[in-house]
Design brief:
Number of domains: 2
Shape: globular
CATH topology of the largest domain: MetI-like fold
Radius of gyration: 24 Å
CATH class of the largest domain: Mainly Alpha
Order of helices and strands: EEHHHHHHHHHHHHHH
Strand order of the largest sheet: 1-2
Low-confidence stretches: 1-18
Structural class: mainly alpha
Helix content: 55-70%
CATH architecture of the largest domain: Orthogonal Bundle
Number of strands: 2
Strand content: under 5%
């Protein structure tokens, strides 16, 4: 069978690219195994979230029953009422939103400029810069904790949002620059050359032409930054830099939830708080699912 007629490939400008795997191309036993594999992956990834959700609907007595019951016999919203009525938790949630939005905006702005420069400009040390970006991802961020704390204390930034935004942006930039660079390389240079003939400068081309064409990549990168390890879900730096109770973020706030006594761990409230902070992100990703996939796949293959 020729490549032209093969269902798993498509021909374009004498270059061949893998087409998405479709269950229609599978038959019989192979299709059954394919469906079972997909279902297993979905169940495996959803299991922790479902466990938290069902546990948040249990009362304290049912939560400690032996043997364990996975689905609550009687639905109780007491945990959600306690979490929502806690003013500190609402403050934690607001702090996380502020820090994550600023981190995403600043990182995306810097990554757009850097990615455009690496993909279009003839720089002397372009390869070395790209190597340094890759190298920066290899170091564990915990080794920077003490130096960053001393730096934030020296500039009186402890317990202020900027103390988290600055390191979050620094740690998120390598991935964001790499993604934006890969995507900009897929945009034909002829578009920019025509714009230069019409009198556009580099910044005008980036702002009026390249960025509007890069909406899928911008959306994908923004979501990955927002829900990544250095924004919404970050714990260590927030615990170390945010000393005041009113300045802490959601991950730290959930860990600090306490019961009626120092010996009680309010698991129902902790699970309810996890669901409340995770559900908006899940819905956000589901809504922008197509943009995320388009941004990832378009930057993966050039041509």
């Amino acid at each position: 069978m020729s490549i032209k007629n093969a269902p798993a490939y498509r021909q374009s400008n004498k270059k061949y690219r893998l087409a998405p795997l479709d269950s229609k191309h599978l038959t019989g036993l192979a299709r059954i195994f394919f469906c079972l594999a997909i279902i297993s992956m979905v169940v495996f990834n959803l299991a922790p979230f479902l466990w938290q959700f069902f546990s948040s609907l249990k009362n304290s007595k049912e939560l400690y029953l032996v043997p364990v019951t996975y689905i609550p016999a009687k639905v109780s919203l007491t945990a959600y009422e306690k979490v929502i009525s806690n003013p500190l938790f609402l403050r934690y949630f607001l702090n996380s939103v502020i820090v994550s939005i600023f981190t995403t905006f600043v990182t995306l702005s810097l990554a757009s400029f850097a990615g455009y420069a690496l993909s279009r400009l003839k720089l002397k040390f372009k390869t070395a810069l790209q190597f340094l970006l890759l190298l920066a991802c290899l170091f564990p961020q915990i080794i920077f904790l003490v130096p960053l704390y001393e730096l934030m204390a020296r500039f009186s930034l402890i317990s202020k949002p900027l103390a988290l935004v600055l390191p979050y942006v620094t740690f998120s930039l390598p991935l964001a620059i790499w993604m934006m660079t890969r995507f900009f390389l897929t945009i034909p240079k002829e578009i920019e050359e025509q714009a230069m003939v019409d009198g556009f400068k580099r910044l005008a081309i980036l702002r009026k032409i390249i960025l509007p064409l890069s909406w899928p990549a911008l959306a994908t990168t923004a979501i990955l930054i927002f829900i990544g390890p250095f924004a919404w879900n970050e714990f260590l730096f927030s615990l170390s830099f945010m000393i005041k109770d009113t300045s802490k973020t959601v991950p730290v706030g959930i860990a600090l939830l306490s019961g009626t006594s120092m010996y009680e761990i309010p698991w129902s409230q902790i699970c309810a708080a996890c669901v409340l902070t995770t559900l908006p992100l899940v819905l956000f990703v589901i809504i922008f699912e197509r943009k995320i996939i388009e941004g990832l796949t378009r930057g993966a293959v050039k041509g």
